[in-house]
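Bumping my old thread because nobody answered last time. Still need a sequence for this structure:
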């Protein structure tokens, strides 16, 4: 195996766009929306996803400036290390690794749950293991092969979401009759039970699940080191991805909010399937189940890629053993991929003990981690711009620059912080704080300990020579 520096720039803009969409459009949209609808109500859920779209847009505007100026694999923790501090960079890297490793658990669990529709007698964990093996196989191939597989994975769900929005819109206005013969609902169902049946504050309590649904957009930054002509492809990917995400997510949520039956909300069956069954299209529910399965596996595919690259970056920066910095002759960090696949073990455990309840816990923990990472991106961009100007540069020298500075990074940081505070009031998601905060503290402590140990080792070398 080769050591670090063997990554190859093989990803074009279409690969970056679909990689980002592949990471985003997964369980967060297809399954977690049921939970959000149940908690925040129909109007509240629409507002939550609109706010989430604004947040992710602000974060991506901040990330774009950093990624174009410094296109590196595993970018986030390098930016945090340089512009915030080594301890923060170390913690951010492990948090992002945790985000996707835990997300792998939720993706494989969700895939196993969906297979129960066709094979109810086979345990969820059996399918989780099979899908984990498949995703692992894809990730050990050449980067170009991985990118092509992910491109077509993502294309399937993008086409499906467009079809879902069009069919749903037709059912809402009466072009497509509902199966039960009821009249076209238009938007009357949005106010069932009041605008905010559980109070307006619930919107902030559900923001973590919404942020988890949007997580993966930042994969553009992770893949910057393997992108062809990053100064051109990264800005294009950011603009295209954000536009499509807002259209896909908000359009989908509006259709779900209007058409989802009152008793169709939850996490054990996709709300998408419930809506298609209400429209009454023959075999559409089974087709949708298959598409959602494809989407989930696509998100897991992107997730394993992201986790392994972040682990490689940590090793390449000598923050963890160099063992994980080695890559194959085809440019794959195989050891980092295998270690990151530990998330598959979480899937097996969660499906054995309590697939539904543990799934929400996994989503919450992963959501907290990615929100903290987003906050670090905002702070890093703010401090980068300040330092860039102090060094005598001008804003015109930046190929891609964050607009409305410093308002954009500050607003992104504040809204992310509010979503973290909000989950403290939700007993279902509070476990994210119980697990996430100790994990962050441990990361800082471990970094401080290992950093001081390395300094002592360096200082001992000249002393030994002098003696």
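Sorry it took so long. Here it is:
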């Amino acid at each position: 195996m080769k050591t670090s520096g063997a990554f190859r720039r093989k990803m074009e803009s279409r690969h970056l766009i679909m990689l980002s969409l592949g990471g985003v459009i997964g369980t967060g949209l297809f399954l977690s929306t049921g939970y959000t609808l149940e908690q925040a109500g129909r109007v509240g859920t629409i507002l939550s996803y609109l706010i989430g779209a604004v947040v992710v847009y602000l974060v991506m505007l901040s990330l774009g400036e950093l990624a174009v100026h410094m296109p590196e694999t595993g970018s986030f923790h390098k930016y945090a290390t340089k512009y915030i501090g080594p301890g923060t960079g170390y913690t951010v890297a492990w948090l992002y690794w945790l985000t996707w490793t835990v997300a792998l658990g939720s993706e494989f669990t969700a895939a196993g749950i969906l297979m129960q529709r066709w094979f109810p007698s086979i345990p969820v964990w059996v399918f989780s293991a099979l899908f984990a093996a498949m995703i692992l196989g894809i990730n050990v191939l050449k980067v170009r092969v991985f990118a092509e597989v992910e491109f077509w994975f993502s294309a399937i769900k993008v086409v499906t979401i467009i079809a879902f929005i069009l069919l749903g819109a037709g059912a809402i206005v009466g072009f497509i009759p509902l199966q039960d013969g009821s009249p076209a609902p238009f938007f009357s169902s949005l106010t069932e039970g009041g605008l905010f049946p559980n109070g307006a504050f619930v919107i902030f309590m559900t923001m973590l699940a919404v942020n988890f649904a949007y997580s993966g957009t930042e994969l553009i930054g992770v893949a910057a080191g393997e992108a062809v002509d990053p100064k051109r492809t990264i800005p294009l990917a950011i603009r295209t991805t954000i536009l499509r995400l807002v259209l896909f997510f908000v359009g989908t949520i509006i259709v779900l909010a209007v058409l989802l039956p009152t008793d169709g909300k939850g996490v054990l069956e996709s709300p998408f399937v419930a809506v298609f069954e209400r429209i009454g299209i023959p075999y559409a529910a089974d087709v949708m189940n298959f598409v959602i399965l494809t989407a989930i596996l696509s998100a897991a595919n992107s997730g394993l890629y992201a986790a392994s690259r972040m682990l490689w970056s940590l090793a390449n920066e000598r923050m963890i053993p160099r063992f994980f910095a080695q890559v194959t002759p085809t440019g794959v960090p195989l050891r980092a991929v295998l270690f990151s696949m530990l998330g598959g073990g979480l899937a097996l455990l969660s499906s054995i003990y309590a697939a539904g309840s543990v799934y929400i816990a996994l989503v919450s923990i992963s959501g907290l981690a990615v929100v903290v990472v987003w906050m670090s991106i905002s702070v890093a961009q703010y401090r980068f711009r300040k330092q860039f100007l102090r060094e005598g540069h001008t804003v015109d020298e930046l190929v891609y620059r964050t607009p409305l500075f410093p308002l954009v990074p500050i607003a992104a940081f504040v809204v992310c912080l509010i979503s973290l505070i909000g989950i403290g009031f939700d007993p279902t998601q509070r476990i994210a704080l119980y697990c996430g905060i100790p994990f962050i503290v441990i990361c800082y402590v471990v970094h401080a300990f290992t950093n001081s140990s390395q300094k002592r080792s360096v200082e001992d070398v000249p002393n030994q020579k002098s003696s």
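Residues 1-5, 264-268, 461-467 have pLDDT under 50 and may be disordered. Let me know if any region looks off to you.
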